[in-house]
UniProtKB/TrEMBL annotation, chains A, B:
<keyword id="KW-0285">Flavoprotein</keyword>
<protein>
    <submittedName>
        <fullName>FAD-dependent oxidoreductase</fullName>
    </submittedName>
</protein>
<dbReference type="Pfam" id="PF01565">
    <property type="entry name" value="FAD_binding_4"/>
</dbReference>
<dbReference type="InterPro" id="IPR051264">
    <property type="entry name" value="FAD-oxidored/transferase_4"/>
</dbReference>
<dbReference type="InterPro" id="IPR016164">
    <property type="entry name" value="FAD-linked_Oxase-like_C"/>
</dbReference>
<dbReference type="GO" id="GO:0022904">
    <property type="term" value="P:respiratory electron transport chain"/>
</dbReference>
<dbReference type="InterPro" id="IPR004113">
    <property type="entry name" value="FAD-bd_oxidored_4_C"/>
</dbReference>
<dbReference type="InterPro" id="IPR016166">
    <property type="entry name" value="FAD-bd_PCMH"/>
</dbReference>
<dbReference type="Pfam" id="PF02913">
    <property type="entry name" value="FAD-oxidase_C"/>
</dbReference>
<dbReference type="InterPro" id="IPR036318">
    <property type="entry name" value="FAD-bd_PCMH-like_sf"/>
</dbReference>
<dbReference type="InterPro" id="IPR016167">
    <property type="entry name" value="FAD-bd_PCMH_sub1"/>
</dbReference>
<keyword id="KW-0560">Oxidoreductase</keyword>
<dbReference type="InterPro" id="IPR006094">
    <property type="entry name" value="Oxid_FAD_bind_N"/>
</dbReference>
<dbReference type="InterPro" id="IPR016169">
    <property type="entry name" value="FAD-bd_PCMH_sub2"/>
</dbReference>
<feature type="domain" description="FAD-binding PCMH-type">
    <location>
        <begin position="47"/>
        <end position="239"/>
    </location>
</feature>
<dbReference type="GO" id="GO:0016491">
    <property type="term" value="F:oxidoreductase activity"/>
</dbReference>
<dbReference type="GO" id="GO:0071949">
    <property type="term" value="F:FAD binding"/>
</dbReference>
């Protein structure tokens, strides 16, 4: 552990030493040695900018190991930074100017490749897996896989790098069918923040292996503070060759879960998405992206709309129904019941529906001052929480608009609130924290939900971690952190 | 930590103290206080019998906590024992007579129920999950779920209790479609072997939750040495309403993986099993169970046979092909290729095919002296390992017969060897260890495989854990064990 005085001391000798490890193009520091991009590494998507003492960009796991060992010895704090598209402020330095950024930019080849290999990805089709460096972007991985008929099935709006996806255990819109990053990670190579910069190799890529602790799970979802994942073996799946989507209008809020259970039974794993969208979020998307087609009769947006998707990995056979027909049959079956949970349904072009779904996020950002919560519930409680909020929020915080959307199929909810930009309460520094704390309290205490469903822990929600994690659990987390990576890694405190 | 002298001392005062916690029927000890069943708790399926100082059977998590705290204070080693159907000798005491068995027999209700509640299982249909005590048997859970149209999808030959399934992270025959216990565990309650007998509650049952370390993964698959799981929240799935199966004869060994990839693409997740069976294992099953029908022309068993299963959660619709037709269409598609990987195929009654598959295990047990290995590989390496062994084993160990079967779809292999019971080498105490060590060496060193795919670590494979786990990993495992459960829990040493 380092003292504050040590931490604040990063000197030119450190730059020389780090350059010896990563080379000229592997290190940047302020005052003319940073290049034009330096500020990019200091700035995160949602929570303002910090100030970096330097940015170090190792090209492989070995260099990462030497960087971590060096910084451990010097008591320098390193902030692991992957695609820097995270939403909780975990991947950028604080404002002290004493922390170094450990960028994954150049971690795009695995140890088995030469550094000048043209291949970035090792594909094992028989095992349906790939071996990649932590710096490979999701889009690059999928561009590599698609011609081969495969995909890494984590469907996100952003384009992160693999290391950050592992560190935050991202979920996304097709979790219902494919699970999260954790469920699709078969192995990792990890570097610890200790005296030796220990490299641990859990890269066998086996699907069944029960020989003691399954170590990868400690490093998945813990934002890099227990160790830096430099390489990974990932599960990949067959690219769907057929898909269809529908917008469903549930009879009422209670009908949403009934519809989910009906769809699951009647479509099994053909069901690849079951997403919920509030009227306010949909209207915000239409306002922000005028080219979006409004599919609702008379343009009247229903209170709540579900986007359901069916897909299959094979091309339609002559002897089979296509998926549009299956969707129609399934909806007709559901409708037969007099108390059908379904009020209306629109089958149309999947691209159009997904365009609407993907426009929600930007839409709500432009509808006013956005207060975003990434929460989750047992699936049934998601709609109960929404109903409670629709009732209580206007009384507690009038003139705050709910424009949520989310992953009903897995209980994840992007619970967004929007406040008019000219609202005088925005000038009151106590207002926003009190709103945040009230919402999270309801999520955690009333509904036993999570205050971070798929964005993990960073500076922005550290306070909630501290508040809602039992003392004993924090004590144990501290011991595990101390055992694995006693050095200063990341700015998140689990213990 | 306890000294040996402390460990060997279990006295009548301990029986009194434990009885105070668990009541008369919660404690048994030798010399007339054990009941007729006492030896059952001392004996494991595959690796002989030990000797217990006592058997303590707490009825809930609170009692478990008090038992662990007491035994921690007294330095008594407890061996957690669930259904005692494990195959690596992890659930029974050693021969010293100083270890107590911590039985899960009575852990059949969760903390939310009264101890005299008639319900043993809390079903949350909206969340597709159940909350159960660790002592509930798999068969009882499924008997509860089936009338509701659901199943806990871990398909095993044995009938373990849930706690043991979690402790060993069982996989089974439908892993390909449903994953292992880890992937179907949404939460656990766990009791630590520390001074307080700390109870940790990770029972929220959320599907998406990334708020620090995901603790359950430390307790899954580590045979109870890091803490005793007393309750769990499990994912359940819709019970299939249609299924079909076929026996496929691959053109040659290399064709097996091609067939797997073809089936995955053409059937997607309708494919729920892809199991491999060697001719020797099949013949052993026919010998042992004469009532099994031999489906092969002229009774000639092919060298290697695959059992593939398709299933769906919905009842066949009039407008759809049934699954038998789908299987025929898919096999015809594969056959179209001149270099089709398929030599022959038999579509028949799924029950008959599964009866054959499930008879393999008993069959090989009766074919001679069985030497069983539970190993796994990257999927492609499974067949390469088999080919290597077919070549090398007869030279290295003549007159030893390979009668393997396994889960080709996930790389898991029950690599069984059979030796004639009258073979004089069986009297040579060095023979069996040398055979075991040679096979495992090939698995781990040549093929980067696992020496314990789905049975976890126990006394029988502790030596391989010690040999093949890197020193640094063992050191870290020891620290984690010390942080979580410093007391003597289980007889497996991870660190």
């Amino acid at each position: 552990m380092t003292s504050l005085s040590q931490k604040s001391f990063v000197a030119s000798q450190d730059f020389d030493a780090l350059k010896d490890i990563v080379g000229e193009k592997g290190l940047m520091w302020p005052d003319g040695h940073g290049g034009d991009d330096f500020a990019v590494y200091e700035t995160c998507v949602r929570y303002g900018a910090g100030k970096a003492a330097f940015v170090v960009r190792p090209a492989n796991s070995k260099e990462t190991s030497r960087v971590l060992a060096y910084c451990y010895g010097r008591g320098i704090t390193l902030i692991p930074q992957s695609g820097n598209s995270g939403l909780v402020g975990a991947s950028t330095p604080d404002s002290s100017g004493t922390q170094g950024v450990l960028s994954f930019d150049r971690l795009i080849r695995t140890s088995e490749m030469g550094t000048d290999s043209s291949d970035q990805i090792i594909f094992d089709e028989e095992n349906r897996s790939v071996m990649v460096g932590a710096g490979v972007r999701l889009s690059d991985l999928n561009a590599f896989l698609e011609p081969k008929g495969y995909v890494f099935p984590i469907d996100l709006g952003a384009d992160p790098r693999i290391g950050g996806m592992i560190a935050t255990n991202t979920g996304g819109a097709r979790f219902l069918r494919y699970g999260d990053v954790r469920q699709n990670t078969l192995g990792v190579k990890v570097v610890l923040a200790d005296e030796a910069g220990t490299e641990l190799d859990f890269m066998s890529g086996l699907r069944k292996d029960n020989t003691g602790i399954d170590w990868k799970h400690l490093f998945i979802g813990t934002t890099g503070v227990l160790g830096v994942v430099t390489e990974a073996v990932l599960n990949v799946v067959r690219l769907p060759q057929q898909s269809t989507a529908a917008l469903l209008v549930p009879r009422d809020e209670a009908a949403v879960l009934k519809l989910l259970l009906e769809m699951e039974q009647r479509c099994d794993t053909n069901l690849t998405a079951f997403e919920g969208m509030s009227a306010n979020a949909i209207r915000a998307a239409f306002d922000h992206v005028p080219s979006l087609r409004n599919p609702f009769p008379g343009g009247d947006v229903p209170d709540y709309v579900l986007l359901v998707e069916l897909s299959r990995t094979w091309a339609k056979r002559e002897s089979e129904q296509n998926l549009d027909e299956l969707m129609e049959v399934v909806l007709a079956e559901i409708w037969e019941d007099e108390e059908a949970p379904l009020e209306n349904a629109f089958i149309g072009r999947p691209e159009e529906m997904w365009a609407l779904r993907h426009a929600l996020s930007e839409g709500v950002k432009h509808a006013g001052k956005l207060v975003a919560f990434d929460v989750s519930f047992r699936r049934g409680d998601l709609m109960r929480f929404r109903a409670f909020m629709a009732q209580e929020l206007p009384e507690k915080f009038p003139n705050v608009w709910i424009c949520d959307f989310g992953h009903v199929g897995d209980g994840g909810l992007h619970f967004n609130l929007s406040i008019p930009q000219d609202d005088p309460r925005l000038n009151d520094t106590a207002f926003m924290p009190s709103l945040r704390e009230w919402v999270v309290k309801i999520v955690v205490e009333k509904y036993n939900g999570s205050f971070s469903a798929e964005h993990a822990i960073g500076r922005s929600n550290q306070g909630f971690y501290d508040l809602y994690t039992p003392e004993k659990v924090k004590e144990l987390a501290g011991k595990i952190k101390g055992a694995l990576s006693p050095g200063e890694l990341g700015d998140v405190k689990l213990g």
